[in-house]
């Protein structure tokens, strides 16, 4: 199975939008090579603005472009976009429901040696709490490409986050993608795993391994954290009786919290979460960090067995 950085899908989608003559403008905070917006800069320089290391100004400029009828794509490291520019995103973009697209690259702990200051583990929580905001966490490069094209068509603020490392490509050109609609990856009757980002592949591997132990695991790619696919979640818990969520994010406030909030009000059931357990990251190689912080196939298998024990 090939591995490709998700940011490649983002860059390809932006090029496609430029090629089609879409009314977009791409803004970057001096990290164009990392976000792949350098591809737009080189081929469509009139569609590109390098704002320097000035994330707050970049969001404000994007708001002005949106008011002029453009569709701006704001691109930088996720931790600086969701963190440093949160006030501008909240008050300038979301409060006014402006058509600004926010792309947080190098998200999660797998950014690796850059350490805790660059490991964005709180961004989904920060973005999903904002009114009018759509929040998407794609699972691979192809889904990132599709998600980028989809948010270009959707009116209003949108946030998409993706990691730096190459991850297995588990979807293809024909795989469906719809904002707000979870994608069923595998049928199963004993337990349901809702995963997003790099954890989708890990969930699929866990399901395959547990099938050899006669444990039937349903797996969903819950790429859209807001709006949540409540129909899929409700059906899954009623049919399998228990839930595990898996994400490369803090355990508090992320996709798992969103699922738990919905279930608490509508259909309480045994639930376990695979996520970073309320701690900052550290410097290290990406896979070493994913393993240390319990973001892998093994951790998902353990949580599945734990939730099945509670269900019994």
Task: Give a verbal description of the structure.
- Helix 9 (199-211) crosses helix 13.
- The protein is 42% helix and 21% strand.
- The protein is built from 13 helices and 14 strands.
- It has two domains: 3-168, Rossmann fold, CATH 3.40.50.970; 183-311, Rossmann fold (3-Layer(aba) Sandwich), CATH 3.40.50.
- A seven-stranded mixed beta sheet has the order 3-2-4-5-7-6-12, sandwiched between helices. It has a five-stranded mixed beta sheet with strand order 9-11-10-13-14, sandwiched between helices. Strands 1-8 form a two-stranded antiparallel ribbon.
- The chain starts with a strand and ends with a helix.
- The mean pLDDT is 97.
- The chain has helices spanning 6-19, 32-35, 38-43, 55-67, 78-84, 86-94, 123-128, 141-153, 199-211, 230-240, 255-266, 286-292, 297-311, and strands at residues 3-5, 24-28, 48-50, 71-77, 101-105, 134-136, 158-161, 166-168, 183-186, 191-195, 217-221, 224-226, 243-250, 271-276.
- With 312 residues, the protein is α/β, with parallel strands linked by helices.
- The radius of gyration is 19 Å and the shape is globular.
């Amino acid at each position: 199975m090939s591995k490709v950085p998700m940011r490649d899908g983002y860059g390809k989608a932006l090029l496609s939008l430029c090629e089609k003559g879409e009314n977009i403008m791409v803004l970057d905070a001096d990290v164009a090579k990392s976000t792949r917006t350098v591809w737009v800069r080189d081929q469509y320089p009139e569609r590109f603005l390098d704002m320097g290391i000035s994330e707050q100004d970049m969001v404000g400029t994007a708001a002005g472009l949106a008011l002029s009828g453009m569709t701006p794509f704001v691109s930088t490291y996720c931790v600086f976009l969701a963190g440093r520019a949160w006030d501008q995103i909240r008050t300038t973009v979301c409060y006014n429901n402006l058509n600004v697209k926010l792309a947080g690259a190098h998200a999660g702990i797998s950014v690796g040696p850059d350490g805790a200051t660059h490991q964005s583990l709180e961004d989904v929580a920060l973005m999903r709490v904002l009114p009018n905001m759509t929040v998407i966490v794609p699972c691979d490069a192809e889904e990132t490409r599709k998600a980028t094209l989809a948010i270009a068509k959707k009116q209003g603020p949108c946030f998409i986050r993706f990691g730096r490392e190459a991850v297995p490509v588990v979807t293809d050109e024909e795989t469906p993608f719809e904002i707000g609609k979870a994608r069923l990856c595998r049928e199963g009757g004993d337990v349901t795993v809702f995963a997003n980002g790099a954890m989708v592949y890990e969930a699929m591997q866990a399901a395959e391994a547990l099938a050899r132990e006669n444990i039937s695991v349903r797996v969903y790619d819950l790429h859209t954290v807001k709006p949540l696919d409540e129909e899929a979640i409700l059906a899954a818990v009623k049919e399998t009786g228990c839930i595990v969520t898996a994400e490369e994010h803090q355990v508090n406030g992320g996709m798992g919290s969103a699922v738990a909030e919905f279930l608490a009000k509508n259909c309480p059931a045994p639930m376990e979460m695979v996520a970073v357990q309320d701690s900052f990251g550290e410097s290290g190689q990406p896979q070493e960090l994913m393993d240390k912080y319990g973001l892998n196939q093994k951790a998902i298998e353990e949580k599945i067995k734990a939730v099945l024990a509670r269900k019994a």
